[in-house]
Amino acid sequence: MPVLNPEAGAGGDSGKKAMKRGDKKEKTGREARTARRGIPSRSELQWQVTELAEQRAAISEVLRAIANSPHDLQPIFDTILANATRLCRAHLGALLLFKENDFHVVARRAPKNASPDALPLQRPLGLRPGTPLSRLAKKRSPIHDANLAADQSYLDRDPGVVIVVELLGARTSLLVPMLKEDELIGAITILRTEVQPFTEKQIELITDFAAQATIALESTRRERQYREAHMELAHATRVATLGQLSASIAHELRQPLAAIVTNGNASLRWLTRQPPEIDEAGLAVGGIIEDANRASEIIGRVHSLVTKNPVRKDLLDINEAILEVTALTHSEAIKHGVTVRTQLAHRLPRINGDKVQLQQVMLNLILNAIQAMSELADGIRELHISTEIVESERVCVAVRDSGPGLSPQDLGRLFEPFYTTKPNGMGMGLSICRSIIEAHGGRLWATGHASQGALFRFTIPAGVISR
Ligand code: ADP
Known about the structure:
This protein is of the alpha+beta class.
């Protein structure tokens, strides 16, 4: 049951009266008589039908937002809040998430000229005893405050409540918890700039919106977990394959390499004889060339094994594939204090490709960039991912970081198999990325000077719809 602030002196019933006063137009004399007999008047019925239609439209809008945005919660939160404030004739509102025992605003509706300090985004609001927020955290049921300006926390000059009352001009406030089973995961608050309590129906409506926000949060979390598991599996398989591959390369190369060393030593011995045995030395050098060619053939065979795998060619939206990977790497970026910015071109043509392989490329470039930036003791850690269409109908993806950058020596060798500067690196990531991009008919390259961050770019031809 909603808890209405007793000091404010407005109960559920008086809330209804106020709603009737404020939200509907005055009744005519006949309507008033009909209402006294308990029969809804024609205009009341019309009102109810309009209200129901509005609610149904709002619910479908929220469901559409949930369906259209499986990875990004922001549009869903914004849609829920917009509908909640509009349907309940509220002037202000916020959607809060409860993390680490505090509330953080993730969506807000406030007047355009409102100070950014009122309802600050993503900052903890501070859970001080006696405030409506801490009452909500304790009771886990709606907190309805008919007049915040009469609330004890305001009279005690709680800084948060003072800001809401004085900077935003809020008076009547409703806070509804978002509960997952019994756990508090957030809240929706709507506020009016005049003393005009919300009706039971409106409180129920906000409770429904809070349930929808909870479902969206949960399904996004599950979806993310599933994709993380999927990616981890793909990554683990790749690492295992690489492990086997490098073991077999080592095995196959050992023999020609040993023969090269033996022939090298032999030719040295022939050449240092007095007089030098040029013919014998020549034979040994001939052997070296033969073995070196064999070694190069082995490498060539392995390379074609990695690159000539047929690529699945689905018609896909590269922006969408990128957003999925950035969602996946979100926690890794936060862990290393990296801010990720995306600038994805609108109306980018689709490309033909293998989504998992291309996501593997993005994952590798992003994780390399995060790793490089986490080595920095200070300075901005920023990762910028952008897409654009470039000449000859090619889609270009750029991943730029503000890490230590690439030395001329790095630039020359980055894409060589087994080139790594990391103690535990395998040095195969970029080489595989290049093979994948080339198998898609594209090009991957790096630029960037030491100390100015690294920039990796790849292009892929725009796709054709296969019939
Ligand atoms: P690994 O990550 O196992 O070393 P990669 O092929 O992915 O293998 O990378 C090869 C090398 O390229 C890395 O060891 C690192 O020296 C360099 N490198 C890759 N990305 C970056 C980057 N964003 N900034 C600086 N150096 C990078």
